[in-house]
């Protein structure tokens, strides 16, 4: 472990306004959205139920929640969610811009109110919020946007994000919402009690808040590096787009007037994920390293403080250039993992072999800002392999494996039956070969054998032991949630996205939310038809004001494309089975309720229609709403 760092000094530096009432409730007071006091136990010494290094990281991430002064003109609210909210003042004015807005509307509101109160005590009046910046397309950085909209109370508020933001925000948080959210319960330990035997954080922060999440679409897109255009009057901002790094759409910001560099989520006090355990597109470790090098070249010599959307800032200390040391070590580690994985891959090693055999330079492996608290060397090199080679390791035995239940049944039978496998697993557990004990017990459970209740109990013990020893926060959570669900059953997803967020989607994305929920085998039995939707008032940022969208049910798939708008007096195509004229808000309600499994008939709305309205009823009859509590550790 690196003993000579500034972690605890920097994590506590600059606190100007502690959060006085740290327990944040949902708007209807039904649930506790955020409670940092739940982590007070981390003030004690590390117990045997936790890895000391991860315990230390939890202590750092749970320092006093509140408003922190980064440098004159730049502030951060930390400890109110997994991520940070940053506030940058426009010199010689009462105006500010917000960078990122947490996971939930409730925590974002509390964070911004905390800054507003502090600003008012310093300047005599509340600040004027003129812009909201998104650094990237992950929900813990945009989910609280609706709170910023409300508190800014500014019809001209600029919402600014990197090129590709909305596309990727929708693909991760709408299209793949059910599967990712279910696995996020494991990754962030959402089912676990906050305690020395339960969830102690996830390495990147403590946890996701569990309130209402919103999506407000940008009205300005950053498409080029360099000075922001159009800019913020009085505040120079230099942009560095970094697509393919920590997110497929991401941007760093440099503020020359403050000698401050915002690295988005590209440089944190942990090794990050190349492929997340909750599921996401594989990141590019090579590009990540290249962009970090570019950041150093562009801004390193001008920067006095680097801050990010998680953790605490890093400041220069006299002659010690901690900023460039911090960035260069991150750069070198991602490059090393990439290059070493490819070297071993090109010598025939499989992902599992690379993860076991890779050796990292001691001077990097010992650095606390590079420890595997969130990402890990083990699953990162597998992600790098996956980016180049895909799911298949080249061994024909792994090309057409049996599904989990069938494979497990054959394993158990070939090993002499369920009682024999259970005894073998207990023997491996006793010899502390927990990894293979888990493999045997997992097969036993998926074989649906007569003694699987006992197998579940033993596997829960094994997962608990593995969790207690894990340095990686997300590994600990995965193991402990696995143990929890073996004992208590599957947990439904707690986070919800505000239905208002569908207003941010393009028509293509809106209808895709429905298309991905049709039960294809049944839909494929229908002969199919077409529907035109004519929308009279689309937001100009999405389309022309009046637009048409043509959808088609064919061969079990719902597809669509834009068509010219036609007035009710002149339908576009007499061969279309149904044409509907509607406003944008009503269309969102119609499609949103259908995708949620709560369809309404078109004749319930004030619409103009030509053709057979039952065609819409046919589409909605095929909707299958995802099970947000699907099994993971059991068949």
Please summarize the sheet with the most strands. 8 strands, mixed
- What would you report as the Rg, rounded to the nearest angstrom? 26 Å
Structural class: alpha/beta
Spans of 5+ residues with little confidence (pLDDT < 50)? Answer: none
CATH architecture of the domain at 12-329: 4-Layer Sandwich
Relative strand content: 15-25%
Say what the CATH topology of the domain at 12-329 is: Metallo-beta-lactamase, Chain A
| Number of helices in the DSSP assignment | 21
The first-to-last residue Cα distance is 40 Å
Question: Which geometry do the CA atoms define?
Answer: globular
Can you tell me the CATH class of the domain at 12-329?
A: Alpha Beta
Pfam family, one: Alkyl_sulf_C
InterPro entries: Alkyl/aryl-sulf_dimr_sf, Alkyl_sulf_C, Alkyl_sulf_dimr, Bact_Alkyl/Aryl-Sulfatase, Bds1/SdsA1_MBL-fold, Metallo-B-lactamas, RibonucZ/Hydroxyglut_hydro, SCP2_sterol-bd_dom_sf
Organism: Trichoderma harzianum CBS 226.95
GO molecular function: linear primary-alkylsulfatase activity; metal ion binding; protein dimerization activity
Explain the overall architecture:
It is a single chain. By secondary structure, the chain is of the alpha/beta class. Among the domains are: 12-329, Metallo-beta-lactamase domain (Metallo-beta-lactamase, Chain A, 4-Layer Sandwich); 505-621, 2-Layer Sandwich (Nonspecific Lipid-transfer Protein, Chain A). Helix content is 37%, strand content 15%. The protein is built from 21 helices and 23 strands. Strand 4 (66-71) and strand 5 (74-78) form a beta hairpin.
């Amino acid at each position: 472990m690196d003993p000579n760092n500034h972690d605890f000094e920097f994590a506590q530096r600059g606190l100007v306004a502690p959060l006085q009432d740290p327990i944040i409730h949902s708007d209807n007071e039904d649930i506790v959205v955020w409670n940092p006091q739940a982590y007070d136990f981390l003030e004690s010494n590390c117990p045997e139920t936790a890895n000391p290094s991860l315990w230390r990281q939890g202590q750092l991430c749970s320092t006093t929640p509140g408003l922190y002064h980064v440098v004159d003109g730049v502030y951060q609210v930390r400890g109110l969610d997994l991520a940070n909210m940053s506030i940058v003042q426009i010199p010689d004015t009462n105006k500010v811009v917000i960078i990122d807005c947490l996971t939930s509307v409730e925590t974002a509101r509390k964070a911004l109110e905390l800054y507003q109160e502090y600003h008012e005590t310093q300047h005599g009046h509340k600040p004027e919020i003129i812009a909201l910046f998104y650094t990237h397309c992950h929900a813990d950085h945009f989910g609280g946007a609706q709170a910023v909209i409300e508190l800014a109370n500014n019809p001209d508020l600029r919402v600014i994000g990197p090129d590709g933001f909305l596309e990727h925000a929708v693909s991760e948080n709408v299209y793949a919402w059910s599967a990712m959210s279910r696995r996020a319960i494991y990754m962030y330990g959402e089912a676990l009690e906050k305690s020395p035997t339960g969830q102690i954080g996830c390495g990147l922060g403590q946890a996701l808040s569990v309130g209402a999440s919103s999506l407000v679409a940008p009205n300005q897109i950053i498409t080029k590096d360099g000075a922001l255009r159009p800019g913020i009057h009085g505040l120079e901002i230099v942009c560095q787009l970094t697509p393919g790094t920590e997110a497929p759409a991401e941007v760093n910001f440099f503020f020359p007037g403050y000698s401050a560099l915002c690295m988005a989520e590209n440089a944190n006090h942990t090794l990050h994920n190349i492929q997340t355990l909750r599921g996401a597109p594989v990141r590019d470790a090579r590009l990540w390293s290249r962009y970090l090098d570019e950041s150093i070249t562009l801004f390193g010599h001008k920067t006095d403080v680097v801050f990010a959307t998680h953790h605490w800032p890093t400041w220069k200390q006299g002659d010690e250039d901690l900023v460039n040391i911090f960035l260069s070590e991150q750069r070198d580690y991602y490059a090393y993992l990439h290059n070493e994985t490819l070297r071993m891959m090109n010598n025939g090693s499989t992902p599992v072999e690379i993860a076991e055999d890779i050796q990292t330079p001691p001077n990097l492996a010992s650095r606390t800002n590079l420890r595997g608290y969130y990402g890990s060397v083990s699953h990162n090199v597998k992600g790098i392999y996956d980016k180049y080679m895909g799911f298949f390791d080249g061994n024909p035995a792994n090309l057409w494996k049996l599904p989990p239940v069938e494979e497990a049944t054959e394993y158990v039978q070939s090993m002499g039956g369920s009682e024999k496998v259970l005894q073998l697993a207990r023997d491996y557990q006793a010899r502390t070969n927990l990894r293979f004990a888990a493999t045997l017990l997992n097969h036993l459970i998926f074989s649906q054998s007569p003694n699987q209740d006992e197998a579940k109990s033993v596997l829960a013990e094994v997962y608990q032991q593995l969790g207690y020893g894990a340095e990686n926060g997300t590994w600990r959570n995965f193991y402990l949630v696995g143990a929890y669900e073996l004992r208590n059953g599957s947990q439904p997803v707690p986070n919800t996205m505000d239905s208002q967020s569908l207003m941010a989607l393009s028509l293509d994305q809106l209808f895709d939310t429905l298309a991905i929920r049709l039960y294809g085998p049944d839909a494929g039995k229908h002969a199919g038809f077409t529907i035109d939707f004519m929308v009279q008032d689309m937001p100009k940022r999405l389309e022309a004001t009046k637009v048409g969208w043509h959808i088609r049910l064919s061969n079990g798939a719902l597809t669509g494309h834009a068509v010219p708008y036609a007035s009710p007096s002149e339908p576009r195509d007499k061969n279309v089975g149904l044409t509907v004229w509607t406003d944008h808000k009503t269309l969102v309600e119609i499609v949103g309720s259908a995708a949620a499994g709560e369809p309404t008939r078109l004749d319930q709305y004030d619409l103009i229609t030509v053709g057979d309205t039952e065609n819409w009823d046919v589409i909605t009859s095929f909707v299958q709403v995802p099970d947000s509590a699907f099994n993971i550790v059991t068949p």
